[in-house]
Specification:
Elements lengths: L1 H4 L4 H15 L5 H29 L2 H12 L7 H5 L6 H12 L3 H19 L4 H7 L5 H12 L3 H16 L1
Helix pairs in contact: 2-3, 4-7, 7-9, 7-10
Length: about 170
């Protein structure tokens, strides 16, 4: 999940995780398991690092303009066509170069950006899940919950409770 938050696509993160889970299941020696755990962390950290470097170095100006438009449009209903309109290029070409440069489609990027904001709101405010869903322009609370769980691995309520427990434990 941390790798996904770092920008790795959900598919890549779960594929790599599945690979390592299969490897770990057959390890019987605790020392080898500890060494392998370190290897797993390094692999995921490297994936995130490479993703970040790729985005910093190779994002085309058109992609950068679309990302800026996404940031401006997080709190309003917006279509892919509207996001692409900031560039004077064909929408299919824009989608292709956006995916090449970011590893996500334009709508996936928009959705991940909205979920990042939802995570912050769930951690740092008492705003209801229904209100967060509405603020971030999800069509319904149930759809928001499904998307949130797909990206973070937990429901919005679980996420809020996990963070509440974490903060509460830090106060003890």
């Amino acid at each position: 999940r941390a790798a996904i938050k770092g920008g790795i696509s959900v598919e890549t993160a779960f594929t790599v995780a599945d690979y390592f889970i299969n490897k770990v299941e057959v390890i019987n020696d605790e020392k080898i398991l500890q060494d392998y755990t370190l290897k797993i962390v390094v692999v995921f950290a490297t994936l995130v690092k490479n993703f970040k470097e790729k985005n910093v170095k190779k994002v085309r100006p058109a992609v950068s303009r679309i990302i800026d438009e996404i940031k401006r449009s997080l709190y309003k209903n917006v279509s892919k066509e509207e996001l692409v309109s900031v560039c004077d290029i064909n929408k299919d070409y824009a989608e292709r170069i956006f995916k090449q440069d970011t590893g996500m489609t334009i709508i996936e990027y928009l959705t991940h950006s909205r979920i990042q904001i939802a995570c912050e709101l769930l951690k740092d405010s008492q705003t209801s899940i229904t209100e967060i869903s509405s603020i971030l322009c999800f069509s319904s609370q149930s759809y928001f919950g499904r998307v949130f769980k797909k990206i973070t691995g937990s429901t919005p309520a679980q996420y809020r409770n996990q963070n509440f427990v974490r903060v509460w434990n830090q106060l003890d």
